Structures are given as C-alpha cells and as structure tokens.
Amino acid sequence: MAKRLNIPVRSYGSEVGTPTIEELAAWIAARRGKSGGDLLTYKLETSLAAQQPIEVPTVGGLFYGERFRGALIGVEEGVLVDEPGIDPREVTADAAALVARKKGIRVAIPAPHLLGVTDGYIEDPEDFKELLADLTARLMREMRDRGVQGHVMITDTADETELERLAGKKCIFFPKDPERFDLELLLEYQNELPILPEQLPFAVERAEEYSIRRLVLINPTSTDLTNAAGYFDPDTLLAGGYCAADCTMYWESLGQEAFILR
Length: 262
Fold this sequence. Notes:
The protein is built from ten helices and 13 strands. It is α/β, with parallel strands linked by helices. It has a single domain, classed as TIM Barrel (Alpha-Beta Barrel). The longest helix has 21 residues, at about 125-145. The radius of gyration is 19 Å and the shape is globular. The termini are close together.
C-alpha cells in the first residue's frame, strides 16, 4: 500500500483587494482601543488571516509596495526629486505587529522596478536602478531587525542588478509568470526554483548544472508532486502558492494537495 508523505507549502504572498465599506467598518470596530492602523494594515491582517491553514505564511504582495514607496525619502508623487533616503517607521511598525501575531513570518513585496518610482534626480538609469535596490534592501533589513524572517520579491522580469543586490537566503525572488521568465538567470543567484508543474523537464535538465536545493511547484496537484519526486529528493520539494485574488479557500485547497504517494 502506498504511503502518504506530506509536502511543505511555500507561500509567495497573498494579495488583498479594496475592501467594501462593511468589511472595513467591521475591521475598525474590532480594532477599537488599538492605536494606529490604516488600509494597508487591514490588507496585511487580511493577507495573514487567509493563510491560516499553512504553517509559514508570507504576508503581503504587490499591494505592499505602497508602503515601501511611502518610506522613500526624496520621492514626491512617484518621482525621485531630492536626496534619497528611507524613513522606516511605518514598515517597522508593520513588522512588529505581524511578528506579534505570527512568529517566523515572511513579507512579500514587489521588486524595486515595480514600486512605481521614476527618476528625476540621479539622471543615470543604472545608478538609479542600483539606488532603488539598495534602498529596498535597507527597508527589508529594518523589518528583519523587528523579527520578520525574510522577504519574497515578486517580479515580472529577471533583472540582473536586482538579483545581484537582493537575492539571498533572506530574499527569494518569485516570478509571477515562470513561463515567460529567465529561469536560468534566476538560478545564477538563488537555489530555490519556483516553476509550474509543466516546467518540470526544465528543472530536470538543469539539475546537474545548477544547485537546486528547493524545487517549488506552483499550484500543484498531488500527482504533480509525486511525479516530481521521481526526479528530485522529496525533501527538496515544496508546494508553492501565490494568491492573486479571492483567497478565502485558496490556501486550504493548496494544502490538501500537498502530498506524495510512495
């Protein structure tokens, strides 16, 4: 009889849309007596609540770029117009509040080029790109200093400057569309590979060339994971998820398929 082996779930973020007036009113009422909090606080808490079925949630998503953008000194209406810097007070407050709710939590943010910031000050595209990456790294470090375990960098393109300056154990890049992403460049900088189940042949072909320590199948079925276990050690496999919308049942459904039969 086949044995069931559970596979860990890896979250790459859980998006939250604009709440209804009723939802926001209920949230405000539940927070009565608590200081601080804004719409992004609501979204972070909702993102976390949706991931209750999984052990290690990654709170946030593209929506959290608004907080990072707001923490950049010298930026006005999305344009860098003065000496750059960071004001980490709001991101560190978010970090402290999240860690108080869940230890070991990670936070998902958009890659620097998706923050919606353009240059009106540096006047050199490469220098500006490096600057944005470095400012983002400083903000992430501030959050980690408050107990956040690490970050997920949601991206739509493999930017070598961003990968070189940000990728590492504490910052994992997640391609929103793995089929249109330069995965080989990604593997030059990180050993965690998020792919769709149908991209398994790519991983098998590159397994000897690159060190793939964690193979993450996005939205897999148990059959997909069992198939991958025929090529990779089950200890290196994860069931990955990124919820772009309507996350009420998403994480529970993902967890129900996160196993292999051996």
